[in-house]
Amino acid sequence: MKITQENLNKLLIKEKDESVILGLLLEFGRLKLKLENILDESWYTQKAGENLSSRLEEIALEYASIRKLFNRSSIDDLISELAEAKRKQHKHEQMESGFIKITLTSENKRRIQFVNELIGLKSKTSRLDHLQFYMENPDEFLIFIH
To answer: At what angle do helices 20-36 and 49-72 cross, to 10 degrees?
Structure first.
C-alpha cells in the first residue's frame, strides 16, 4: 500500500470526538472490574494480569495529571491556552506539506479538542474529584457527557 497524505491523516488524526477524561474513567473501571474478577477470566487474561495492573496505574497517573491541571486552572487560563493552541495550529498549517506538518497539526488538533473539553467541563463543575469517587458514584459520570 502506498503511503499518501490521506492514509497518514487517517492514522494520525482522530476524527471521532470523544471525551478524553470519560474514556480514561471508563477504561479504568473496566480494567478494575476485570482485575477484581480475574479468576473468572480466560487463562490468557489471567496471565496478562500484571499488564492490566500496570495499565491501571498508568491511567490513574494520567487522570491525576489532568485533574491537577483542571483544578488549578481558571476558565480564563484555559481560554488563553486554547488561543495559543489555535495560534500554533494556524502557524503549522502554513508549513509546506510533509510528515512534520501532519504530525504537528494532528497534535495541535488533539490539544485543541482536549482544552475545549476542559472548558466545557469548567462550565459544569469547578473541580474534578479523584478516580475512586467516580468509581463509587457512577451517576457523577453525567458531567462528562456532552
So the answer is: 150
Instruction: State the DSSP H helix or E strand holding residue 105, giving kind and residue range, or none if neither.
Output: helix 99-122
Q: What is the pLDDT along the chain (146 residues), one digit of tens a residue?
A: 455 556 545 555 555 557 889 889 989 988 988 888 887 777 777 777 788 889 999 999 999 999 999 999 999 999 999 999 999 998 888 888 788 888 888 898 999 999 999 999 999 999 999 999 988 888 887 887 75
CB-CB contact of 102 with 5 (8 Å): yes
| Closest residue by Cα to residue 70 from 3, 144, 146, 145 | 144
CA distances from 36 to 8, 25, 40, 41 (A): 39, 16, 9, 10
